[in-house]
Amino acid sequence: MDSKRLKQILSSSSDVDVQYNGTSVWVDQLHEDGRTVTVHLRGVPLEERTEVDVADLKEI
Description:
It contains one helix and five strands; from the N terminus they run H-E-E-E-E-E. Helices cover 15% and strands 42% of the residues. The protein is α+β, with helices and mostly antiparallel strands and 60 residues long. It holds the Pfam family SspH. Its main location: other. This is Small, acid-soluble spore protein, H family.
């Protein structure tokens, strides 16, 4: 995925399915570098956040 599309998803009110390594995640924040994001697994408490590369995300 690219950062432009990710910005659109973050500003959308729709529930867009985004996956990281085949697992659905919520995108919490796009970092200022535009290449990394903070995500957490759907259904898992917010305390378990992970920083990943935007390129590793896939829109389903």
